[in-house]
Amino acid sequence: MPKIQSVRPGSLAEELELEPGDEIKSINGQPIKDIIDYQFAVTDEAIELEVIKSNGEEWLVDVEKEYDETLGVEWEHPTVDRIKLCHNKCVFCFVDQIPGNMRQTLNMRDDDYRLSFLHGNFVTLTNLKQADLERIARLKMSPLNISVHTTNPELRNFMVGHKKAGEILNQIAYLAEHEIEMNTQIVLCPGLNDGEELDRTIRELAVNWPAVRTLSVVPVGLTKHRKGLYDLRTVTPEEANRVIDQVEAWQETFLRQKGAAFVHAADEFYVMAEREVPPADRYDEFAQTENGVGLIRNFLDELEDLKGQIPAAIDQKRHVAVVTGTSPANTIRRGIALLKDVANLTVDLHVIRNEFYGPMVTVTGLTTGSDIVNQLKNARRADVLIIPDIMLKDDADVFLDDYTVERVSNELGMPVLIMPANATGLIKGALGMTENLPPRRRYESTLTNGGMFGCAV
C-alpha cells in the first residue's frame, strides 16, 4: 500500500489530518497499488478514502472536492510503489559513463512506462508484459516516449542488450492499434544504426503514423569516463551533414504524404555541421524540445520577437557574466549581440568546457559547478552571474557534481541569477528585467531518461 512521505501545508490532506507514515489502502473501493491507480481515482469529485494510520488505526473518510483538486501528498517513491528499473545493457548507456562517486539518484536506471506517461521519460518497453500493454491501452495512457534506436530486431537486441528488445515493432503496432500516441527516438551510433539502418527505422516507424507522432534522431554522447565498454565513437561533422541530408529528404517525403515532417535531427547535428536549423514549421509543434530538438529554432524565433523590447540604455551601469555549454555558444552569442549597443550594459559570455565529463560532452545541461568555478576564477568579476536553470537539479539549486549555487557564488565572489534557458531568460536577465518572469522552471527528467539529461546527449 502507498505510504505518505509528506503532506503539503494548506492541502486537503492536511485538512483531513493525514500524516507522514499513513497508508492509503483504497479510493472509492479501488485498491491503490501505484501512482496510476491513484491519479485516476483521485480525479472523482466525491471520494471515499480507506486509510491505515501509522498507529494502526483504520479510517474511512468521505471527501467532497473539485475535479482537479489533489490531496496534496508526496509519496516515498515517485510511482508510489517501486520504480521499474532498467535491466538493459545498452552499448551507449550514459549512466555507465559517469563517475562512480556521484549521488545515488544519478546512477539509478529507470525504465518505467508510468514515468513516461506522467513525466515524459523515455522508455524501451523491454520490461513490459502483455498485461502492462493492455493496461496502457485500457487506461489510454498517452502520450508515451519510446527509445527505439533501431527497428532491426537483431540489431536492437544487440544495442539495447536485452533478448526481448527485438519485439519493439509489435509493441508499437499494438499501442498504435489502441490509439496510444508515441514520440520516439534514435540515439545514433556511427557504424551501428546509421546509413541504411537509419532509413529502415524511419520507414518502419512511419507506418504507424499518426500514432507514432514524431521520431527524433540524436547523436550518441560519450564521456571521458567510458572505460571497458563497447567501442563507440562520436559523430563527425561529415556524418552530421549526411544525417541532416538523410532526415531532411525524409521530411520532404512525409510533408507531401502526411502533412507532417515526422522525423527530426537534433539541434546538435546542425551545430556539428555548422548549418542553420530548419524553420519552425518543420518541427511538428515542437513535440521533442526536451530531447534537444528545436531548442535553437525556438530561441532564435523568440529572440526576433524580443528585438523591439530592448532599450537603448539602462539606468545604472550593469556588468553581467553569462555561462553556457560549448554546443549552444554561437546561438547565445546571437542573443548577446542584440545587447551590445545598450548603454550602461556590459555582457561577458563564458563558454564552459566540460572537464568533468570530458570535451565530447557539449550540452549546457551537463555543465557542472566545479567547471564554472575553475574556468571563471581568473575572469573579471561581474555584478551578477547568470546561470541557466537546466544546469541545476529539478528540485534544488544543485549542479550534477553536487556544487550548490551558493558555493559557486561564494567562490567566485559574484551573486548568481538563475534564469530560464531561453531567449527571454538571457535578454531579461542581462537587462535586469526579471520582475514579471515566472519562477524558474522545474524539469522532471533524470539522468536515465531521454532529453537533456539522458541517453540522448
From TrEMBL:
InterPro entries: Aldolase_TIM (IPR013785), DUF512 (IPR007549), PDZ (IPR001478), PDZ_6 (IPR041489), PDZ_sf (IPR036034), Put_radical_SAM-like_N (IPR045375), rSAM_sf (IPR058240). PROSITE patterns: PDZ (PS50106). Residues 4-35 form the PDZ domain. It holds the Pfam family Radical_SAM_2. Gene3D superfamilies: 2.30.42.10, Aldolase class I (3.20.20.70). This is PDZ domain-containing protein. It comes from Effusibacillus dendaii.
